[in-house]
Amino acid sequence: MSATVETMRAYRFCLDPSDRQRQVLARYAGAARWAFNARLAVLVDGHRRYLQEVAYATYTDDVDEAGARALVKARGGVATMSLASQSRELTTMIADHRSRAAADPDTEGAWLHTINRHAIVAGMRNADRAWSNWQSSHRGERGGARMGYPRFKKKGRARDSFALFHDVKRPGIRLATYRRLRLPGIGEIRLHDSGKRLGRAIARGEAIVQSVTVSRSGHRWYASVLVKQQQEQRGPSRRQRAAGTVGVDLGVKATAALSTGELVPNPRVKASVAARIAKTNRTLARAQKGSNRRRRLVARLGRLHHLEALERARHTHALTKRLATGWADVAVEDLHVAGMVRSARGTVEAPGRNVRAKAGLSRGILDVEPGEIRRQLAYKTSWYGSRLHVVDRWAPTSKTCSACGWVKPKLSLSERTFHCGDCDLVLDRDVNAARNIAALAAVPTEGGDAKARGGPAPEPPHGGEGAGSQKREDHHGGHRSGAIPNPSENPRVRGKPAA
Asked: Is residue 429 part of a domain?
């Protein structure tokens, strides 16, 4: 009997609300935006008063900034209203709005009592989370790019979104039928999709609904239902074990090259809608601000961008599910995507070269979204019994011969075919790299394959300087390298070339 683990999983549904329900959803999103701004205003005010105290201590006590911060902290710091205190104030405000509306139903501004309290509190919690993330990033405790100072949300710019919670013992968020989702305070909303998978998991007692996040993208409203689910831990199936390991080399010409020799074509989603988006943008630039025509053009532009994102997501999900279900082990490279798409403009003193070409390459890389592919593989492999291996980004996978291990001294991006100078192998460069990735996945590495967010960055080989704009590779001479094992000597690696 296989073991089960408790995980958090989200089921995303496309909603089909009526016109009245669309207005209610927009009102809830506006209330969550107001709550976020109200909580952020308190945090920003406390931070400004703290900076004023630090500046005053620096002047009066004749100390540096670090000493002034220590003095302010020793004196008790600056008091800022906690989330619990502001939530109690919210209760008073809701009661005031309710009494004003009861006295005069036509009173303007008495709207707070018409919104589910959970949507407002969730907006405040999001502000606290944004503030905490900024502080962690500022102190260097949070991985990834440095986060900027939290900003207030503006209607028309910030994404319309709100969250609702409920008591799991008396669920208010539930499926009324497979095609209707009930939300507290809003009622039943029809679904474009079917909720059969979620409904059957709840009926079997495997899933408990925790919350729902409703958001708007383009012309559609979506509901993401978060559940606590008992998931079966299973190993690879017989078909997956028979398939073995597959190496995946992500690129622009082809979305992915597999070690089996297959090239997954790139749908080039961005190029397919670029002409319509450009035409709409030109028309929008000539429209008068505040006019109905401009409002319709903005809606049309949002719809086009949304359809582009949906098409890209469809291709990405199809590829990642196929990889996770088709092989027992999936190997990918640890690509530095942020560095790969970094601008080549340079500075005034040292301007960049081929800036327009590099910008086009960056758009192509972002269109493939390699980071999203790796993210989806990370959780889908755990669902379907396979394993994900992340290969070191400094491994010379493109320059190494997958048959004999010979390393090519130099390989330009324009060379799409790999020619081995030792065994005369002629192979597509991406397929050759994918086979090398598969070979590296068969070699156990110290500390495992996963690379956690915020962990130490891998060191460049041979004392190289920092991560460059592309995945770097070693520059060896034309000799046999021991960095990548020879697939022809390892029967566990699939896709090895014929002798």
From this structure: yes
